Amino acid sequence: MQTMTFHEPGRPLQAERHPDPLPGPGEVRLRIRACGVCRTDLHIVDGELPRKCAHVVPGHEVVGIVDAVGEGAGHAIGARLGVPWLGGTCGTCLYCRTGAENLCDRAEFTGWSRDGGYADTLIARADYAFPVPAGFSDAEAAPLLCAGLIGYRSWMKAGEARPVSSLGLYGFGAAAHLLAQLAIWSGQSVHAFTRPGDTAAQALARSLGCVWAGSSDQAPPQPLDAAILFAPAGELVPVALQAVRKGGSVVCGGIHMSDIPRFPYALLWEERRLLSVANLTRADALAYLPLAARAGVRPHVTTYPLHEANTALADLRRGAVTGAAVLIPA
Question: 2-145+280-328 is classed in which CATH architecture?
Fold first, then answer.
């Protein structure tokens, strides 16, 4: 098998060859067709997230074909499956027992604590791999496995307290461009906030049907019912709180964010909510993937060959990717 392996921060991923792994009980082996490049991968390779193991193959937006199954795996040879960030849970801790497996005390994470999809072959727990709707190509399906899922979970959290008619998305990258399509399909008015001067992202937002697109340092033309932050920039938290109406919610959708600056209590007062989203659950995946297909979500992707994973990460780091980046094995 061919991999692009992370060894230490500041060092490029290394192209390596290893013997093909064999699936154990309850596992499947996938021949990878596509793997999305997520900002969380950047947080790992840049050392912003703590290391879980000495070296790891990044990537957690994996689409592949089952070519070997372990005992009791429950998937057929030839099935097309998607493997997301959450790679396994203990099933016994308080969170697993109460429907919050995304907060499991002993969770495994694809591409962080177990090898992921920057490769041509992957071993995954069969119970954390999901059928991919037929309407998506491999490259289109890959971003759904994290950008889509974390956007969906953030969106559901944003609407828990009150109905949302006007939604703001801060950071219009992979997750936001997928969620915008779902939110617009559901009847919401979406406002897209991008890096100042990112006219390409703003043009994409308008083409998808967003009612407004501008820079994150601009105020929206109307108060928002909710805002979701995908940009890992803590300074945007008080900006978003100022943009939402009384009773509105601000959801932080990333696994890592820079420090949030001090802000006056008045921005939070009047029953505004500030909350974070962590990981995902299997129920999220089972709900979101067919919903994305029904809603006609169409991922905008830029593909790179697997051996150019470092280039893809560099492009993502400097904001040069519009939509989502996807690696394709040779």
Answer: Alpha-Beta Complex (3.90)
